[in-house]
Write a structure and sequence with these properties.
- The complex is a heterotrimer of chains A (677), B (197) and C (162).
- Helix content of chain A is 61%, strand content 11%.
- Chain A is built from 22 helices and 10 strands.
- In chain A, α5 runs antiparallel to α6, α13 packs antiparallel against α15 and α17 packs across α22.
- The radius of gyration of chain A is 27 Å and the shape is globular.
- The termini of chain A are far apart.
- In chain A, 60% of the residues are buried.
- Chain B is an alpha/beta fold.
- Helix content of chain B is 34%, strand content 19%.
- In chain B, strands 2-1-5-4-3-6-7 form a 7-stranded mixed beta sheet.
- The longest helix of chain B is centred in the middle third of the chain and has 16 residues.
- Chain B is elongated and about 85 Å long.
- Chain C has 162 residues and is an all-alpha fold.
- Chain C has 6 helices and no strands.
- Chain C is elongated and about 70 Å long.
- The two termini of chain C are 18 Å apart.
- In chain C, 33% of the residues are buried.
- Classes of the chains: A alpha+beta (677), B alpha/beta (197), C mainly alpha (162).
């Protein structure tokens, strides 16, 4: 019953979005603006209809209605409620439904917020979003219909993919990912609207699209970090990033979105890079669709790939349509978008942004080509090749390390132009931070060039960004006689977009530091222990207490409990890696246990055990600074939030941001100081 | 709207779309082996399951590839925990019986498993007509570029790998490959053929 | 001064990207000559380095160094044994390629078409840098018109008056 209702809701939704996408251009071209209300109405109606369908699916999942095909495929009476609900996005059809719902939500909010804006930009954007929604509606009533009736109705189902029901982060990562991924269709819709309404040569549209991109970028950043965390907590090898095609798919639009968020500032200030910014907007959207295509068509083998089916052909057709129409729009209108602007000078923040965009694009293309290369090699050479972690570490990491450096250079240089002497005065002090952190890295045992450089550049950029807060707050203090805390708070509040940006930089630096430290100083050992025996890695010791088993409704759990010993041999805690055997799968799911502290993680993974409990084989990994990655991700998101709610511009602040009269000599003192500010 | 430029730009999309369209014709899971056509890696492994007369070999005996010159050798990698191995078991054991007395040697290689488990499995499956050997440390499996079980290699009388089969094999394929190899070997001269035992 | 700085910058970044190409197999170079007996910790490190570059055949995209599967363990043992017998890391990799095909290498060998895979990022960055230099020079040369004043709606104080 629920299934029939939801299926019909989706059919009506398809008709609604097709109608809306069709009526909008007619209304604009014929000047019948009142018809636009029909298009907007279609957006709202579509949101209601897809909400009905999604809610029906959740009801069907929770009530174990196995007459619905999707529930029969992923449901199980023994699965806990939380994992039953989140299995909504655990398999192909449900994830498409969830995608369609998020898209319908975005479209409704966009139209509602901007409905009164004069001009044709918003109507065309609504049309674009409806057209994208139509594609997903076609999938949902066709090849990815999750509401197909099942007869005879099975008594129980297999339950969700065991990897996905093993950790609560699966309740967090996918929604964030969809909010990020799908949100990037909004700036794309604005880009299309800007071209069609002839507003692309002006800057107003980027003011609208920028916020939507920033919000989506914040969600996607959070999603990528949550996904890394999930891999780390579930896959059992102590890593968080493997350059798997699916991971790359989430990273690609993040890179172009990051480039956009920087280039858009150049456009706003100097009316330059307009075509480039437009390109980034479109590329970001195309990459989200490409990523979805790669993960759902079965065209590349991946740990996370969904099962394949005819849906791949639909995606291929859609990608072709999106790429061709985007290229036609961009190339057809490119002549009108050529920059007539002027950079103040070479030593300026604008120049750094050009370099930043260059390196972000380089990383994106390296990862994209690397991900697709197995396909290219097979087509051109007829040979299967692999492109994995060592390739990406070698070819993509150098540009990323360069980006860490640029993160320190950009904020230090002023907009417009400056003299080389002034530039030197601004750029030199952070080198103190580079020396300090680089030395710490070498002292701690880093020997690889890129690792040492990353430490140094993180130090450089950290000082560079923190110094902006320090210098600004100090100037305020002098000008207004405020105490340091008030000065800092008012400084940030006065320009949330700018200081939000610096905060995001600091978060990214924390991530870079955590990644470099944990991969450089990782030590691991694997050993088979009998109860009472202990294993020491990097000065940390664990001792096996016992091997145990436990039955749960949906799985059997085998665990090994270890005491964690302090330096004096006293027990300071326990760590309990497990192996979960789900009834529906013959593959056990490793469930490592992690003990975190500010200094880093102790990670234990159960590799094997003797059935009678006589011994257990454990992989013990000591990874410094891993929690800094998760914390850094949080700081990035806070930066995005700060930049998002930047409000209306205030009156001109005190000239707080001009760090004049900074003594060039003795860089160490001013360098260290800001860190404590 | 500059249509000339627009049409030109769409050419960028063509190779990308063509690449994906090509990708649909390929199975990312199927990886071709470089071994067929090359000399088969040698092996000398110990029998842990003797097989049945007339094909039986004593327990603990060593089966060497170099002793099999002039014969078609069928090497089947299997394990007791492998589901597809159950499907092909009867076909292999029947085909081996049918070739008894002809220059064809069947060898089972236990992969990533305990000999005790292997013997129990053979008993549960109603016996295996040909001997199986132990592959300590998977050395032979790695020499043969094994991706998983079951995989079957057919080695020609000249000692070259003629054919590799991934997944459950059928009697039909075995007959077809072995017969054609035996037929091709005959014109090479009677000297090349040694008696079966 | 400006030109010198620009040249230095360009050279620095060019070197930056030349690094990965020339350091392609630092593993091979770091290894002591075949004849000298290899200390165990060095052998461990080389084994780990080679294992990290080989793809586990029974897993999904993992290297045999990371995978807990029994085949990966056995393959690590083979890597170690061959290294101890005096083979170079390149020879060990070649052995696995002869058995499994190029697919086994997580980093394709830089030969033939694969060279493009390695050259592409370097060429892109090189070309991009040249473009940035060209654009900055063009956009900062006098006579290209005053910068439009439409920018900076939200933090005008940020515009630096030089």
């Amino acid at each position: 019953m629920t299934g029939l209702l939801a299926h019909n809701a989706l059919l009506v939704s398809l008709a609604t979005v097709l109608f809306g996408a069709g009526i909008a251009p007619v209304a604009i071209r014929t000047g019948r603006r009142e018809w636009l209300q029909l298009a907007y109405g279609a957006v709202y109606t579509n949101f209601l209809l897809v909400t009905v369908a999604t809610a029906s699916m959740i009801v069907a999942l929770v009530t174990h209605d196995f007459s619905v095909s999707y529930v029969a495929a992923v449901g199980s009476r023994s699965t806990p409620l939380l994992f039953t609900i989140i299995s909504l996005w655990g398999a192909l059809e449900g994830s498409i439904l969830f995608w369609a719902w998020v898209l319908s939500l975005y479209a409704a909010v966009v139209v509602w917020v901007h409905r009164r804006r004069p001009g044709d930009l918003v109507p065309y954007a609504a049309m674009t979003l409806l057209a994208v929604a139509a594609f997903f509606a076609i999938l949902l009533v066709g090849p990815a219909d999750p509401f197909r009736p099942v007869f005879p109705v099975p008594a129980d189902g297999p339950g969700p993919n065991t990897l996905l029901q093993n950790h609560y982060l699966m309740a967090v990562h996918p929604p964030l990912l969809y909010l990020g991924y799908v949100g990037m269709s909004v700036p794309f819709a604005f880009a299309v609207g800007a071209i069609l309404s002839d507003e692309a040569a002006r800057n107003d549209w980027v003011v609208l699209s920028r916020r939507w991109m920033l919000a989506s970028w914040g969600f996607l950043s959070a999603a990528i970090i949550a996904g890394m965390w999930w891999s780390y907590e579930v896959l059992g090898w102590g890593g968080y990033w493997a350059w798997d095609p699916v991971e790359n798919a989430s990273f690609l639009p993040w890179l172009t979105a990051t480039a956009y968020l920087h280039s858009v500032m150049v456009q706003e200030r100097r009316s330059m890079l307009r075509l480039w910014t437009l390109n980034l907007c479109v590329a970001t959207f195309v990459l989200t669709i490409l990523g979805t295509f790669l993960t759902r068509s079965g065209i590349l083998s991946s740990v996370h790939a969904f099962t394949q089916g005819s849906i791949g052909y639909y995606f291929l057709a859609f990608i072709a349509l999106v790429m061709v129409s985007a290229l036609v729009l961009l190339a057809g209108h490119s002549e009108r978008l050529h920059s007539k602007g002027n950079l103040g000078g070479a030593a300026s923040r604008e120049t750094v942004f050009l370099l930043n965009n260059l390196f972000l694009t380089a990383v994106m293309l390296t990862v994209l080509v690397g991900t697709l290369y197995p396909l290219i090699a097979e087509a051109m050479r007829g040979v299967k090749v692999s492109v994995g972690e060592p390739f990406f570490n070698q070819m993509a990491v150098p540009a990323m390390v360069a980006l860490v450096f640029l993160m320190g250079v950009g904020p230090a240089l002023p907009w417009g132009s400056t003299t080389w002497a002034d530039a030197r005065r601004r750029l030199l002090p952070p080198f103190g931070g580079a020396v300090v952190l680089g030395a710490i890295g070498v002292f701690a045992g880093a020997r690889k060039v890129y690792a040492i450089l990353t430490f140094a550049f993180v130090g450089y950029a950290a000082v560079g960004n923190l110094r902006e807060y320090w210098v600004g707050a100090r100037a305020r203090r002098k000008a207004h006689g405020e105490n340091p805390v008030t000065a800092l708070a008012r400084l940030i509040n006065g320009n949330r977009r700018r200081y939000g940006g610096y905060l995001a930089h600091i978060g990214a630096l924390l991530v870079a530091l955590g990644v470099t430290a944990s991969s450089t100083f990782r030590s691991e050992r694997e050993a088979t222990l009998a109860p009472g025996e202990s294993l020491t890695v990097a000065g940390q010791t664990i001792r096996l207490t016992r091997v145990w088993g436990r039955e749960e409704p949906q799985r059997s759990v085998i665990g090994a409990t270890f005491d964690v010993l302090g330096r004096d041999g006293a027990v300071i805690g326990t760590i309990t890696p497990r192996m979960n055997y789900y009834r529906v799968s013959d593959q056990p799911v490793p469930t490592p246990d992690v003990r975190s502290s500010l200094r880093g993680d102790l990670y234990a993974s159960l590799m094997a055990f003797e059935p009678r409990g006589a011994n257990a084989t454990v992989k013990m990994i000591v990874e410094p600074l891993v929690p800094w990655i998760w914390f850094g991700g949080l700081v990035v998101v806070l930066g995005a939030v700060l930049g998002l709610f930047h409000g209306t511009p205030r009156a001109v602040r005190a000239p707080a941001t001009e760090p004049e009269a900074e003594p060039v000599a003795a860089p160490a003192a001013p360098v260290i100081a800001p860190a404590h500010a | 709207m500059n249509w000339k430029r627009a049409v030109f730009a769409t050419l960028v999309a063509v190779p990308v779309i063509a690449l994906f369209a090509f990708g649909f014709t390929r199975d990312p899971g199927a990886i071709p082996s470089p071994l067929p056509g090359h000399v088969a890696p040698t092996f000398a492994l110990t029998v842990f399951a003797p097989g049945e007369p007339p094909l039986a070999r004593p327990m603990g005996d060593t089966i060497r590839l170099r002793d099999q010159a002039g014969k078609v050798v069928v090497v089947n990698f299997w394990a007791s925990w492998c589901l597809a191995c159950r499907a092909e078991h009867v076909e292999l054991t029947e085909t081996a019986r049918q070739y008894a007395g002809r220059p064809a040697q069947f060898v089972g290689v236990l992969y990533a498993d305990q000999p005790e488990m292997g013997r129990q499995w053979i008993t549960a499956m109603g016996g295996q007509s040909y001997p199986s050997v132990l592959d300590d440390g998977s050395r032979m499996a790695i020499d043969y570029g094994l991706y998983g079980v079951p995989e079957t290699f057919i080695i020609d009388p000249g000692g070259r790998i003629a054919y590799k089969h991934t997944g459950a094999i059928t009697g039909e394929i075995l007959h077809q490959k072995i017969d054609s190899l035996l037929a091709a070997a005959r014109p090479a001269g009677p000297a090349a053929r040694t008696p079966d035992r | 001064m400006r030109h010198a700085a620009r040249a230095v910058l360009a050279a620095a970044v060019a070197l930056w990207w030349a690094g990965p190409l020339s350091a392609q197999d630092s593993v091979a170079r770091a290894r002591p000559p075949v004849a000298t007996p290899v200390a165990d910790s060095a052998l461990d490190a080389t084994t780990a380095a080679v294992s990290s570059s080989l793809r586990c055949p029974v897993c999904q995209g993992e290297s045999i160094q990371e995978s807990p599967s029994s085949l990966a363990q056995d393959m690590r043992a083979v890597v170690r044994q061959r290294l101890r017998a005096g083979e170079t890391p390149e020879q060990v990799k070649a052995y696995f390629v002869s058995k499994y095909g190029e697919w086994i290498l997580l980093k394709p060998a830089a030969t033939g078409l694969n060279k493009l895979l390695y050259l592409f990022p370097v060429l892109f960055v090189g070309g991009g840098l040249a473009l940035v230099v060209f654009l900055v020079r063009r956009w900062t040369s006098p006579g290209t018109g005053a910068p439009p004043a439409s920018g900076a709606p939200d933090d005008p104080s940020d515009l630096h008056s030089s």
